[in-house]
Amino acid sequence: MSVLETQPPAFTPDGAAEVAAKAFGLAGGAATDLGSERDQTFLIESPAGDAVLKISNTGEDPAVLDLEHEAILHALRVDPELPIARPLGRSVHGDHQVRLFERLHGRKGGPELDDDAVRAYAQTHARLNLALRSFFHPAAGRELLWDLARTPQLRPLLPSIADERRRALVERAIDRFEERVAPAWPRLRAQVVHGDLNTDNVLLDERHRIAGIVDFGDCSHSAQAADFAVALASLLRGRPVEDVFRVGRIAVDGYASRIPFEQLELDLLGDLVAARLAMIVAISAWRSARYPENAAYIQAWDDDSWTLLEHFDALGADAVARELGAAAPAVPTRELAARRDRAVGGILTGLTYAEPVHLARGEGVWLLGPGGERFLDSYNNVPVVGHCHPRVTEAVVRQTRALNTHARYLYEPLVELAERLLATMPAEAALDTVMLVNSGSEANDVAWRIAVGATGNRGAIVTEHAYHGVTDAIADLSPEEWPHGFRPASVATIAPPGSGADVAVELDRALGELDGLAVTMIDGAFTSDGVRVATRDEMAALVRRTHDAGGLFVADEVQAGHGRTGEHLWSFAAHGLVPDLVTLGKPMGNGYPVAAVVTRREILDRFAFAGTVFSTFGGNPVAARAALAVLDAIEDERLVVRAAAVGARLRERIAALGAPGVVEVRGRGQITGVELESPELAERVVNRLREERILIGRTGRRDDTLKIRPPLVSGDEHADLLVDALARALA
Ligand code: PMP
């Protein structure tokens, strides 16, 4: 028989004092009834000391009491600071199991708990669950009516709710539970939990912090989110409705500061709180009818529970769920595009494709739309180790939880990253100093300032359709972005290698156009110039002539670095050249903004620069951890070798198509340019592939070259998908 269906024990205070004396030797004590639902609880004040006596219902299974007892001891062993009332003794008195607990001081709390107290409450709750998560007991699978998993079993109790409107309200909460929570329940994290950490089961100190957790009577194996929902319902009950969700989110924060929620848990939290409220009122109605003499205790929470349940019902379960962290459904693509246009269209680059690619997730080489439709990403060079690589996302999340601050304080990740980057640079380059920044543009901007300071010159040489960044200085060094007919007087351009011109001659001509050279800045993959492959001699000539002219050579590895070219981590290393400055970005954090300038102390010493550089987010611990994780994943997965093999095969297969519109296939590693007959054909091909959900781009001065830059994790099977689609598009 369930303990809820047996009569609770009915000892008088004197009787209880006698039990305390006989069973636990607390002679001469006075007992005060503390009130309880299915047991009796007395405060015993005796000459030998104070304690709390619990006289259990005769229906109570001894194994369950053992579960409670062991759970408390376990939690206290794991986290001795947890404010749990310690068990002092167990015994039997007649038909009753009797237990003695440490007396803790404090008061009961409720809706008057302020935000800090709510946060701390939830934090303590999470601590308790952390302490219990390694606990096992054979009785933990006990059947407990109060277990939220059993919400559907409330239905037979519904006739006890006299008011028809209210009955319907509870019914709707149960329906919703069956529809949304029950099917997902097996996927919720579960463990032994307290099960009823409501504000009546804790004692609070004068600052309203939990000073005592007192009743493990609902301890069982259950979903952690359900256990939290029980506590949350009690924290929210009785508050002004306009405050309910704000306070609820603060409680979520408090719990999450110790145990981060999974999205599924947040998706279901609102429904779980509603189920708990429904459970309170339904069980209360049923039990009050059965035990009218105990009705006052049983119904203590009813009014506030009904009020909150009514508020939830009026708002609608979806809205409630969202208020507490459930994921919102995707906005329809057209509507989202219109909103984007209104909010940022005046300044931000337009969307790629007439039919926007609307995305919700990424995994490896795949990008996924809100409905789960998959796009093969053969375009984006940022997710170099694949979209949402767990090594990187976990590094970012862990470091975000631990610390994120700026480089004026000392912390390991920045130093580790700087040392690691230097160690990857070819020894002959003697690069010894790193400046961490936030974007490729910023890296190039810093490189430019250093070069101007170190050389005293203000001229720059770049390839004729290069892109190096967005800042004022670097936009000047980015002919791809120049308005028609514009060229800053301080910038001269050269034709990229492989375009028929002699780069040495080109450089000499360019030098003639300048009044002193500060930098020659080169993207090692010549990405915006249509993807080009320079020879060792061409690159050597560029560097030598740059130095002869008093300038510095900047290897812009923002595109070509991090293994993309398939030979070395850094594309310039394949040419054995010695750059003065190396800039890194884009793939460096696999999507987390982080970039770097690598140079030599000797160059920094030469320039009359205003001391040192600082960039608020530059080299922050999270960015540094992301960058370290990327380097780790590239190494562990041997991605540089893979990029070389998969990229070479891709180019061979495209060339072997012998498709009529193809002029030239070129590239290194996983950066491939396919020059086509005309920009129009290139545009048609890009759009055809988009229809097949394969993403590539266009590049080159005439925009006639297909730009293919998949994540380095992509394999032959992905290359084959692309080539087959390309064959269809070119046919
Ligand atoms: N350099 C090169 C070679 C680039 O391709 C880019 C970006 N396309 C940049 C610099 C600028 O990087 P960011 O957009 O991160 O500022």
Q: Helix count, per DSSP? A: 22
| Major beta sheet summary | 7 strands, mixed
> What are the segments in which pLDDT stays under 50 over at least 5 consecutive residues?
none
Percent in strands: 15-25%
How far is the first residue's CA from the last residue's CA? 77 Å
Helix content estimate: 40-55%
Q: What's the number of extended β-strand segments? A: 24
Described by the principal axes of the CA atoms, the overall outline is elongated
General description of the model:
With 731 residues, the protein is an alpha+beta fold. Helices cover 41% and strands 15% of the residues. The protein is built from 22 helices and 24 strands. A seven-stranded mixed sheet has the order 13-19-18-17-16-14-15, sandwiched between helices. A five-stranded antiparallel sheet has the order 1-2-3-5-4, with helices on both faces. It has a four-stranded mixed sheet with strand order 10-11-12-22. β2 (40-46) and β3 (49-55) form a beta hairpin. The model has no long low-confidence stretch (mean pLDDT 95). Bound molecules: 4'-deoxy-4'-aminopyridoxal-5'-phosphate. 4'-deoxy-4'-aminopyridoxal-5'-phosphate binds next to α14. The site of 4'-deoxy-4'-aminopyridoxal-5'-phosphate (PMP) has 15 residues, from α14.
